[in-house]
Amino acid sequence: MMDQSFFEQFLIILLSAVIAITCLRYLHLPPILAYLSVGIIVGPFSLNLVEYSDTIHLLSELGVVFLLFMLGLEFSLPRMITMRKTVFGLGFLQVLSTSLLILFIAISLGIPLATAIVISGALALSSTAIVTRELIQASELNTGHGQISIGILLFQDLAAVFFLIIVPSLSGQQDIDGEAIIVMLLEGATLLLILLLLGRTLLPTLFHEVAKAHSDELFVMTALVAALTAAWLTHTAGLSMALGGFLAGMMLGESRYKHQLEADIRPFRDLLLGLFFVSVGMQLNLMALQDNWYWVILITISLLTLKTLTTTGLAFILHKDLKNAFRAGMCLSQGGEFGFALLTLAMSYQLVSSQLNAVITSTIIFSMICTPLLITLGRKLSPYLSADQPVPTYHPFTSTHTLQLETSELNNHVVICGYGRVGQIITRFLKPLKIPYVIMDSDPLRVQESAAAGECIYYGDAKRHDLMKSIGAERAKLIIITFPDEEEAIKTLNSLRHHLSRVPILVRTRDDSLLEVLQQAGATEVIPEKLEGSLMLVSHVLTMLKIPAWEIRKRIRQVRAERYTMLRGYYHGTSSKKIDDEGIPTTILHPIFLSADSAACGKTIKALELDHYASSIQAIRRQNRSLQTPPSDTVLEPNDTLIIQMPADQQDLLEATLLGS
Predict the structure, then answer these.
(1) What superfamily in CATH does domain 404-544 come from?
(2) Which of 22, 150, 525, 648 lies at a CB distance of 3.0 to 4.6 Å from 578, suitable for a disulfide?
């Protein structure tokens, strides 16, 4: 192979993946197939452009770590406790039944017992990476079959440790050391318990302090350190790195930072997980299968059939739901990534021949390639099955617990961006009306206080589409932006409208200075707080003056329809500011009296071209009469008093222009 640096090899992988994913998207095929294909084509057994190095192996493992970290965020400890029947009951039965069936078949074919145990372990385990990714992509993680699949996969990750532990004991046909296995399992369980106890108290506190710094970089780095540290600890203890990532995520699953963590980790997960699937494809040696291709096809079909039927049957017995049981069976029918590690370890102890290793490895890879297609097939066939009783909900809903399940099922709810004074007032009206709502806010103290009070609130940046999607923004009946910072409101509106073209968005602002900008950016409604407060006051005044309610509503609707033109500007006094706190000239109302020799006399309003001064005539006082909003062809006369709305810094210039001085 040509001398290449790792950077060049990594670039080849990325370029090939971009081309492959683009091509497969046109064919409506899953991107996982693209990654696997890239690995097969550029790997050492085909074009030999990229070698399977330790660096690629490590980076690909980190992709699985981050995937399991995000999975842990979805499955917090209380939820895992409520899923114990699925994880430890169904998961145990599935692994035991599948392993024994494969072991029996292998022994029947004349394979030695020790080798048969290795093969049964390698084929009994399914691919956490592929199944989880497919469920996330299809938004099916929190469905009935999704939870059954995840529960079984979690137990399989624990069972993988058992299989890896017993391989050395199987070497040389020696007796299995049961005492050593028990000791190692107890050591692993002790480490897991310590991680859970420390993590549940330490990690949420750590992220709360980090969030106070309002630094995106610090938050991302802390998330990476948490996931990788847990992975390193479990790896050091002889457990899988992926299990450590899952534990770190699970410890943060109850925190209000989970959605922000998901968004921050996702880019690393997607890139490194893609590299993992490429590395899987690189291990397929097509040349070695020339004499055994029929065995690979036969074993692959048998494996997919056996695991589908076994998982479906067990899940149906425990959950009494054929549709979800069948779909879970289709999801878990393949071999898994732990099978590669188990076979590699067995090869080092000479328990598996190179030829048998090639056949089993190829079987696992081909079953992985079939998985996205089988999951899609299961989705299409399941409606034809009877019994659509849902799998019981696994986790209790409390104000401090994750709302992922609830938000995945919510429709026509309200999403509130920002939970300051205005946001809190809105929820006080929504709550008695039983209108569901979800809040996104970036103030960690406010999030903590509100969550403790029972609000459905999450920490995160509302400009992040993936965060808003996770709380069901695309299914919302209304999104409300309440930020006092108008620049932040505009950025959030642009981000939301870019992805959510049909959801109504209401924006609260201090005044009407950015009314047109917000409407052009896609705001369905813009509520200038100061002007609406004035309208509320006016409605009370008119009510006390016995003006009919219909007349009051008519006039207020007219003001809103005219974009609050009538309310813009006011007469300033000596204590009024002509420049606001941000250095912008305030809008004022100023009367200008036209004498007989004024330059504006005899001209129409249109001829004055007041638009150049960002000004307009609101009214004309003429012979004790008031002409409100005069038309542009109105001719100005001597002794008219013009009521002009203008920026404060234009007053002197306008007077000079109109009076001719």
Answers:
(1) NAD(P)-binding Rossmann-like Domain (3.40.50.720)
(2) 648
